[in-house]
Amino acid sequence: MSKVLYIKANAKEKGQSRTFKISDSFIEEYKKLNPDDEIITLDLYKEGVTLLPVGQLQELHIPAPGFGRDHPILKYAYQFLEADKYVIAEPLWNLSIPAILKAYIDYISVTGITFKYTATGSVGLCTGKKAVNISGRGGDYSAGPAATFEMGDRYLRTILGFLGIIDFTTIAADGLDVIGNDVDAIVGAAIEKAKEFAKTF
Fold it and tell me: What CATH number is associated with residue 174?
């Protein structure tokens, strides 16, 4: 049995996120195919994730004795480490990820929990795991010159690789805000792709 951490980062009201239409469809299909797996949904806005508190950066990134799974911030790093698979769902905002997702990344990137430093450099401690990033994007950043502006998926792929997760797949719905595009068709195609990918995730 696998433990799946479903990380959601979008401020839109329920039912309004095109990204979540795709990611929720993926989760539903995954549940059908893997009924015994545990799925933990972590909606970052509902969690109220904020920026790291002033003055606590050092103690959080070198956890002191007694700072365990009940710590209000470190609990997220332990939860992340204990998962086997990750589903991340977020829109591309201003060419990158929503700030709340970056704040969450700061919560989980903790020395001694999700990575460590060695004499030869940093080593990720989340090895043997896999992740899928599902993202809705207003423009088409899939290829060509515009692809160089896409820094959301690239950042997530890089930081998760830093933590040891190199099995990383992207499912993107591009061109959602381009006038004249058939948005329903784009979202529908991404949903079908997500459902197909769920068979091997």
Answer: 3.40.50.360
Residues in the chain, how many? 201
Please give the tally of structural domains in the chain: 1
Structural contact between residues 9 and 100, judged by C-beta atoms closer than 8 angstroms = yes
Q: How confident is the model over 123-159, as pLDDT tens digits?
A: 999 999 999 999 999 999 998 888 999 999 999 999 9
Distance (Å, rounded) from C-alpha 19 to C-alpha 77? Answer: 25
Compute the distance between CA of residue 106 and CA of residue 100 in angstroms, rounded to an integer.
10
> Is residue 179 classed as helix, strand or coil in its secondary structure?
coil
Residue 191 CB partners (closer than 8 Å, separation 6+) = 21, 22, 25, 26
Which phi and psi (to 5°) does residue 122 adopt? -80, 150
Contact 163, 180 (CB under 8 A): no
| pTM greater than 0.85 (yes/no) | yes
Range of the domain at 53: 3-198
Average pLDDT along the chain: 93
Single-letter residue type at 151: M
Tracing tokens 């977020």 back to the chain, one arrives at 90
Low-confidence ranges of the chain (pLDDT < 50): none
End-to-end CA distance of the chain: give it in Å, rounded. Answer: 13
